[in-house]
Fold:
Amino acid sequence: MDYANIIQSIAIWALPLVFAVCFHEAAHGFVAYRLGDPTARMLGRLTINPIRHIDLWGTIIIPLVLIITKVPILFGYAKPVPVNPRYFKDPKKGMALVAVSGPVINLSLALLSGLVFRIILWLCPDLYPFIMREGMTFACAGIAAWFLVPLLLMLIKSVQINVILAVFNLLPIPPLDGGRVMMGILPDHQAQTLGKIEPLGFFIVIFLIMLNPFKVMNFLYGIMAFLSMLFLG
Structure:
């Protein structure tokens, strides 16, 4: 086992993942607060401080296992921000807005990361060959590249991670954000019916990932690849 490459991969993946999940949850809390719910603020969750959001399993253990086992897709999550829809003037609409804010902030982070990535490569085009191999020794590229090459790799991972989080969370399966958005826009009866599958939502997602029925994951991977290439250029 190549421990040096594993450590390097963890270092390159870790910061973008932590930022992605923390901004995702902070966005939920911020939108809920703007709509009148003070719960997240009272609990100190209106922050991007990772300590407030990190979940032992979702932010550390599961991503670490995926990186070490070289699974082609990295997924993680933070502690959900508590939201009390009773504070909203329109609880259904409010919950839909809170839910969609997570994927929106992830797509915004992907766009920002892609822009910074493009700017750095535009200013330093000689660095392009060095980002094609994550396992290489960066010192050979000089002091500037020793800093910039890992940064570029982190920006690539930031785009990929944020796109993955946005696309997965938009699946119309409660408790994912897409499921909550659907519950917010469907008529009450249909929304209640959809809400009944929430206890099984996690298992449904695992089923989709592992067994790929009707090639659903192929379609999702295609969307992820398209968005990643769009942001990175």
